[in-house]
Specification:
Blueprint: E1 17-20, E2 27-36, E3 39-48, E4 58-59, E5 62-63, E6 73-76, E7 81-82, E8 85-86, H1 87-96, H2 101-105, E9 108-110, E10 116-118, H3 124-131, E11 139-141, E12 147-149, H4 153-159, E13 165-167, H5 181-187
Parallel strand pairs: 8-12, 11-13
Antiparallel strand pairs: 1-2, 1-7, 2-3, 3-6, 4-5, 9-10
Length: 190
């Protein structure tokens, strides 16, 4: 997961898609930003997509927002949420960054006795070198990286001129209509 500077309450707006800093697959929608009676500081009320919150948007009898279910809402400190990153930042993290300990721990197979056996990727440096040459990328997979904005279209078209396929599964773009068809086509060089 990417590291981000501590977010301020101003980083969050109603309707914005966010994810948990500790779990990028835990995605939700901002429904409230402000103080919560009886608790110090600023809070962000989030309605979680997976329904795993603590309440329905009310605390101690005060309603701050309406969650979609009785337990899909929660109040979160800003430092525990990510407002997302740009498409270009995600490309750099995925294809130019070093693999994390977490990712390397996930590289295993199960033996006949159902024990985890680590897998070493032969030629890893060669593969990383090829993937880091953005101008040659024809497809990119950026699942659950917190992509919330595309970035500058001219930067995208010059950085990844041959990109034709893009996987943005589990990211934070809430409305495609805010990106015009020509913008998306330019992004994907169509």
């Amino acid at each position: 997961m990417q590291e981000s500077a501590e977010s301020s309450p101003d980083s969050f707006k109603l309707g914005q898609r966010v994810h948990s800093e500790s779990d990028p697959s835990r995605i939700g929608t901002v429904k409230y930003v402000g103080p919560v009676q009886g608790y110090s500081g600023m809070w962000v009320g989030v309605d979680w997509d997976n329904g795993e919150g603590k309440h329905d948007g009310s605390v101690n009898g005060v309603r701050y927002f309406q969650a979609k279910s009785e337990r899909s809402g929660s109040f979160v400190r800003t430092q525990n949420l990510s407002p997302g990153i740009s498409f270009l930042e995600a490309l750099h993290i995925r294809y130019k960054g070093e693999s994390t300990k977490e990712e390397e721990d996930e590289m295993y197979v199960l033996s006949a006795s159902n024990k985890r056996v680590s897998v070493e990727l032969v030629g890893k440096e060669k593969i990383q070198d090829k993937l880091s040459r953005f101008e040659e990328l024809k497809g990119a997979s950026l699942p659950y990286l917190g992509v919330s904005t595309p970035g500058n279209p001219s930067d995208i078209s010059s950085l990844v001129p041959n990109l034709k396929e893009l996987d943005l599964t589990g990211n934070l773009i809430s409305e495609w209509k805010v990106y015009s068809a020509s913008y998306v086509c330019l992004m994907l060089n169509l």
